[in-house]
Write a structure and sequence with these properties.
Length: 341
């Protein structure tokens, strides 16, 4: 199997849920939430794509970088490259149901390990989704991360304990899920968190804690103050709030403000290896991959997930050679990469 076959299979199997457009930019699927799209007009998804597209790379080939280093370490784990799998749930109502949530969780958690990296599992109104994610993490000897919805503090802490017992390497909350009406429909309220809430939640665990869904410098600073290990600069694939900024346009300022104090992850519209390079150049330490992993699982199951990650990795490797970036751990390496017109 190769990446073309994985995508071809995914296109056939996802039917009207996703037609794998030549450019996955949030336009065809606008408003398809539930589904694969962005909320309402799809503006936040589209902006995440468009702003990342505007970032351009300075090609340089007169240098000595012949074998750039992609290996890195996050959450105490050695990774083959600085990309992890984003938490994603709802296989039936978002993706058409070709795989169950249990199958998806296994595909991504084990497929990530096969590719030398780590997957995050998500949380939703259906308690089964979180549970099958936890079971997948157990199968992978704890090599996975649990991202919990911004429920009541006691409910979050309960799930953190479940993740700890499964041996997970880190936990977190997708704070941008604070307005999800679907959770209310399931009788499981979510909402915004105060600084004190965050401190209470973070101090309940010894595991590294991730705050997912940060788009402003002031909130990034609050995460540092609360003692978080990492933030994810993300607009949730454009699915929570329409008309937000794009991760790619706020990342530089956030990295300048807190880059020395906290690990910065970023996601949104990464479709090829060069997109990872762009986020690294803007100040991220590592990235999360979203929708392409769905195609990987549906188009080729666990192997398809590995193929998707391996493809991104080799494209990143090539991009680093052709821009003269020698090491993903060396932030100075990226300072010359972005084109300033
Ligand atoms: C179908 C779907 C379901 C998602 N479910 C979750 C979730 O349960 N928890 C979460 O934190 N993020 C969730 N996300 C957001 C992703 O984790 C990630 O932030 C986003 O997909 C990144 O953008 P990209 O898909 O363009 O790469 C979901 C995204 C999609 C497309």
């Amino acid at each position: 199997m190769d990446i073309k076959e994985v995508k071809k299979n995914a296109k056939e199997r996802m039917k009207e849920f996703c037609i794998l457009c030549p450019e996955c930019n949030g336009r065809w699927c606008a408003g398809k939430v539930p589904g694969m799209g962005g909320a309402v007009s799809g503006g936040s998804f589209q902006r995440a794509f468009d702003k990342l597209k505007e970032v351009k790379i300075a090609m340089r080939t007169l240098h000595s970088v012949v074998d750039p280093k992609l290996e890195c370490n996050f959450f105490g784990e050695n990774l083959s490259f600085p990309a992890m799998i984003a938490p994603i749930t709802g296989t039936k109502f978002n993706m058409g149901g070709y795989v169950t949530d249990e199958e998806y969780s296994n595909d991504v958690v084990l497929g990530a390990v096969d590719a030398g990296t780590i997957a995050m599992i998500g949380d939703t109104g259906d308690p089964n989704c979180f549970q099958v994610g936890i079971e997948a993490i157990k199968k992978a000897d704890g090599k996975g991360i649990a991202i919990i919805k911004p429920r009541e503090n006691s409910e979050i802490i309960k799930r953190i304990k479940i993740a700890e017992e499964a041996g997970a390497i880190a936990v977190g909350v997708d704070v941008d899920g604070a307005g999800l009406v679907t959770m209310k429909l399931f009788g499981q309220p979510v909402g915004p968190k105060s600084l004190d809430d965050l401190k209470t939640i973070i101090s309940s665990t010894k595991l590294p804690f991730i705050v997912k869904g940060i788009l402003t410098v002031d909130e990034a600073k609050l995460c540092v103050e609360a003692g978080a290990y990492a933030i994810v600069v993300s607009n949730h694939g454009g699915r929570c709030l329409n008309e937000t900024f794009a991760p790619a346009e706020v990342l530089k300022d956030i990295a300048a403000a807190v880059g020395n104090d906290i690990v910065i992850l970023a996601d949104g519209a990464i479709r090829e290896g060069i997109d990872i390079l762009k986020y690294l150049a803007l100040g991220a330490d590592a990235v999360l991959i979203g929708r392409p992993i769905i195609w990987g699982s549906i188009g080729g199951r666990q192997e398809g997930v590995k193929i998707t990650l391996d493809t991104l990795k080799s494209q990143l490797y090539q991009g680093m050679i052709l821009s003269g970036a020698d090491d993903v751990n060396n932030s100075k390496t990226f300072s010359r990469i972005l084109c300033t017109k």
